[in-house]
Amino acid sequence: MGKGKGFLIKWLVVIGDILMMNVLFFLICFCLVKPIDPEMINKKSELFLLLNACYFFALYFIPVKISERTLFVEEIVKRASSLVLLHLLMFVACLLLFSFHIRHVESIIVFYAVFFVLFNLWRIIFRQSLKAYRSSGHNFQRVVIVGAGKNGLELYEEMSQQEFYGYKVMGVFDDNRSLKKQIPQYKGALSGVEQFCIENLVDEIYCTLPSSQDEKITRLLNFAEKNMIRFYIVPEFYRYVKKRLTLGNIDHLPVIALRDEPLQYWHNRLLKNFFDISFSLMILLLVFPWLYLILAVFIKLSSPGPVIFKQLRTGLYGKEFYCYKFRSMAMNCDADEKQAEKDDPRTTRIGEFIRRTNLDEIPQFLNVLNGDMSVVGPRPHMLKHTEMYSKLIDKYMVRHLVKPGITGWAQVTGYRGETKNVQQMEERVKRDVWYIENYSLLLDAKIVYRTIINMFKGDSNAY
Length: 463
Prior knowledge:
By secondary structure, this protein is α/β, with parallel strands linked by helices. Helix 8 links the parallel strand 4 (about 205) and strand 5. Helix content is about 50%, strand content about 10%. Helix 1 (about 5-30) runs antiparallel to helix 5, helix 3 (about 45-60) crosses helix 4 (about 75-95) and helix 4 (about 75-95) runs antiparallel to helix 5. It has 16 helices and 11 strands.
C-alpha cells in the first residue's frame, strides 16, 4: 500500500506549487497592475516559461520532502522559504540576463511577497492534510520489527501511537516466544520473517537485533534487498545515547557524532547574532527607557535597594557573567542560593507583577548586546545550581554549548520557574539539549512568539 505513494504525493505538491505560482503571477502582473506594461504582454509566454523554469531549477536544489514520515512545521517553512528566495534570485538574474525591461518592478515585488506567504501556507496545509489522511488509515507503510528488546518495544510503541507518521506495524518478531502475551502484534520467531514479509507485501523492515547477531542481520538484509524491501537498522547503543546522531567519514571509516549542532555552522551563528542584536536594539530603544522610569519608581517604593539586580550566572562554555534583572525581591542573603518559590515572602508586590509578566527579564537585553546572552537559549542558572546539578544530571553541562537565553524552549513548554526536584531539572535539560540540536531562526521566532503570548495569558509557574 505504501510503495510509490511518496512519489505521487511529491507530484501533487509540485502541481499545486505550479498552479498557485502561475495563477498568482497572471493576476498580479497582468490583471491588477495598471497601466499594463506592454512589454510584459508581448513577452507573456517567455515570462511564464522563465517563471516555471526557475521553479524547476530551484526544486532541483531544494526537493520536496513533505511526504517524509516525520517532519516538523519549522522545517517545512524553512524549506519553502528557501525555495522562494532561490526562485527570486534566479528569476531576477534571468530577467537581467535576457534584457527584460519591465517598467513595473513593484509588480514583481508584490508577486514575491504574496507568493512567499501563500507558498508557505500551501505547504503547511498540505502537510497537515496528509497527517490527517494518514491518521484515518491511508498512505501507510507496512512495516515489521525484528527484535523485541528495549529498542524494539520503544519503536513499536512510537509507531503504533503516532498514527500520523503513517506506519502500520504488521508484526513483531523475536525468538523469545513468551513475548506473545505482551505484544499484540507478535508473530513468532525470526525464522518466519521472510515468509511473512512476502505474504503481507511488507514495505520496510526495522531491525533492532544486537550486533552480536550479525549473521541473522546479514541474512535479513540480503532478503530485503532481493525483494525490494527497505531495510533499517536501529543501533543498539540507542539505549545509551538518546539524541540525534550525525554520520560522517574520515576517509573510508564511518564516524558518528553524538549530535548535530546547527550553531556550529557560521551562517547559523550569523543569523542568530543578527536576530539577537536587531531584536535587542528594538526593545532597548522602544521599550526599556520608559519602562525603566515607571518600574524604578515602584521598585524603590516597594523596598530599599537598587532598581537593577545583578547576579553571577553560568554562561557559554561555563564562563561566569553578571545577569541583569529588574529587582523583584527585597534585598536578602539567600539571593545567590535559593530559587524563587510560590508565595515567596521575599517577593515584593511589584515584584510579583513583573515576574508574572516577564518584565523583570527586560534588562537582560543589555546582556545580549554585551555578548553574554542570546534572546533565545537555555536559561542561565545560579552558580550554586550549576555546581549541584552538573554532578546529578549527566547531560547538564551540554546546555552550556550555546549562549544562555532570555527565554527558551523549556520555558515555553511548561518548565519555567522553580525546579522542586532533580526530575524537573532533567526535563528542563532535555528540552535545552533538544533546542541545541534543532536550532533554526524560525524556531527562535516561534519561542519568542509563545513567550509574548504567555506574558499576556499568564503562566502558573511564573512566581
